[in-house]
Amino acid sequence: QKLETRGGRILALVPAHNAPSDDSEPSDIEDEIRVHAPLSMSSSSAPSIESSLERLNLLNDEQEPTNDNVRLTPIFQTVYSSPSLEPNCNKVPILSDIPSFPATPASPVTPATPTNSATASVLARSASLGLETPRMPANASSTLLFSRRTRSQRPAISVAQRPRRIQKFTLSYRWKKAVFRHLATMEEESDPIGDATIQTPLEYFYKFFSPDILTHILEQSNAYAVSKTGRTLGLTEDELRDFIAIHIIMGVVSMPSYTDYWSLRYRYKLVADLMPLKRYQQIRRYLHFVDNNIEDSDRYYKIRPLVQKIRENCLFQENERRFSIDEMMIPYKGTKAGKRRQYMKDKPNKWGFKNYVRAGVSGMIYDFILYGGEDTFRFHTFSEQEASIGFGAQVVIALCKTIKSKPAFVFCDNFFSCPELFYILREEYGIFGLGTIRNNRLRGAEASLPSEKEMKKKPRGSHAQATCNKNRLAVGLTKYQRSENGIKGTKKRVPQVSPVETSRYDNVGHFMTMTTQGRCRLCSKLTVVQCLKCQVRLCFVTGKNSRNCQLQYHVPT
Fold first, then answer.
1. What is the spatial distance between Cα 255 and Cα 248, in angstroms, rounded to a whole number?
2. Burial level of 540, CB count in 10 A (0-12/13-18/19+)?
3. 406 band by pLDDT with thresholds 50, 70 and 90
């Protein structure tokens, strides 16, 4: 049979146990000892494989193929209880034909593609041995990889590109010593705070700390307590108000430790009578402002909902027309803030959280931005021009975007000021800017201004101006002195006590005593001798420069 013939030929290729190779000669000695031959420079002849390859050609068979049934395994015989008598060589049952097995679609398998060199060697060897050459697909040349010709034609690997560097916004300046021609006038405000009346401190507090903030804190604190202990905190709105009131009182009346407000020795009734210590500690332990299950890369995500609600209340207030933008420190000396805690040596509160604030003439805060490093402007967007003029200028623009009533005036210090900032504020937002500016940001205006040496020779209050009417900008230079170096008045003499002449010359009880060093009443030299009765310092020195002012003072001339 055809199948048995093929199987026999395949088994014939397997050499017998301890059979010699085709090119080895038979040994006459049965018990031959194998000796390792020394290494030689020439290699041995390769074994002959032509006979094996000829026997491997299973397709060249002179016998006619027969279509006998293939024996089925016991599993298939169980499934197919009444097998068909027709030949099943081309219809061998598979697992998917069994009704009990779910049919799964066969995934296409892509055969491994050999390299060009390996394919060429196999084809050449098959042709030399007279084997049938397997048919290659029409696009075989396109599927061959790793060739020098196709290596340069591979698609380029897409790599994440770096963010495009923003070109810095610059202006062309023409500074001149001329009069500024682009003046603007604005009506004066009658009431800087607006149309509001004077309210109680509690009403002002609820303007910024609205009731919805209290509701949010209640929900998050109770939920956090449940996640940690499995029981609710039971925090009510009245208890939360008392808790906030205690912290406000603690900010006014300071003690070394918060437990001192409840201690027997330092008990403070306004705090101790408002809430028990254990309840205060429990609320303090589980006070929360955000859901911890929400992942966020924000540096202030623990308090971000609270901050956003307070900022919305600030934006809701009626704005003024004149604002000041500067840094403000929120005091904090703890160690749990990481890099969020900043240090500023020129501030009254040197340690804390840096906060950029826009405030009005009345002192009301209308907008603010918490400093968070690169994450400061998480909720703000800028144009390409605004993003290229520096961090300080971006702070001013972000705070000025929320100004409701325009035109308006904005004042800032030299950390924020630059000519490009004031140009954008006036042209894009209709806001006039004024601020001190650093020498390295004058953009060429220093050429039209007198030097520092020349300004020192001028009196106090002297000023100069350089204008750029093209961009509607002006830079002024003013001389000012923190302290005057004028003529100082003579030192006022303190009147000294003089004894009565009758007591001075009575020669009774004028004893000398030692006292602190001071000036002698007669010669004005330093001495430590004093008359006990007259209470006057007088010299009594012996030696080379001896002098006796004690005697001269008590003897009339």
1. 13
2. middle
3. confident
Residue 121 has which token pair?
């060697």
Q: How far apart are CA 292 and CA 85, in angstroms?
A: 73
- For residue 228, give both structure tokens: 């940690």
Give the rounded distance of the alpha carbon of 555 from its chain centre: 86
Q: What is the pLDDT of residue 13?
A: 73
Q: Which amino acid is at 220?
A: Q
Q: The tokens of 409 are what?
A: 């005036």
Name the β-bridge partners of 514.
529
Measure the CA dihedral 442/445/450/455, to 10°: -30
Q: Whole-angstrom Cα distance, residue 105 to residue 381?
A: 52
% of the chain beyond a pLDDT of 90: 20
Instruction: Give the count of beta carbons closer than 10 Å to the beta carbon of residue 207.
Output: 15
With beta carbons less than 8 A apart as the criterion, state whether 411 and 324 touch: yes
Average pLDDT over residues 142-169: 53
Fold entry, domain 321-441:
Nucleotidyltransferase; domain 5 (3.30.420)
User: For all residues of the chain together, what is the average pLDDT?
Assistant: 75
Q: How far apart are CA 361 and CA 320, in angstroms?
A: 8
Q: What is the DSSP letter of 472?
A: T
Cite the residue boundaries of each domain of the chain with CATH code 3.30.420: 321-441
Q: Contact, 537 vs 553, CB < 8 A?
A: no
**pLDDT the model gives residue 86:** 56
Helix, strand and coil in the chain, % to nearest 5: 30, 15, 55
Percent residues over pLDDT 70 in the chain: 67
Lowest mean pLDDT among 88-92, 325-329, 549-553: 88-92
pLDDT at 375: 82
Q: DSSP letter string over 151-175?
A: HTTSPPPP-PPPPPPPPPP------
Put simply, whether the predicted model's pTM sits higher than 0.85 gets the answer no
Question: Do 497 and 521 form a contact (C-beta atoms < 8 A)?
Answer: no
Number of H helices, E strands in the chain: 18, 13
55-70 pLDDT, tens digit each:
555 455 455 555 555 5
Q: Give the integer Cα–Cα distance in Å for 114 and 342.
A: 64
Number of other residues whose CB lies within 10 A of the CB of residue 205: 13
Report pLDDT digits (tens) over 441-480.
888 888 888 888 888 888 888 888 888 888 888 888 876 7
What is the dihedral angle through the alpha carbons of 417, 420, 422, 427, rounded to the nearest 10 degrees?
-160
DSSP conformation letters of 475-526: EEEE---SS---PPPPPPPPP-----HHHHTS-SS--EEEEEEEE-TTT--E
Query: Which tokens in the block code for residue 537?
Result: 């310092």
3-state secondary structure of 420: helix
Read off the tokens for 375. 């994450």
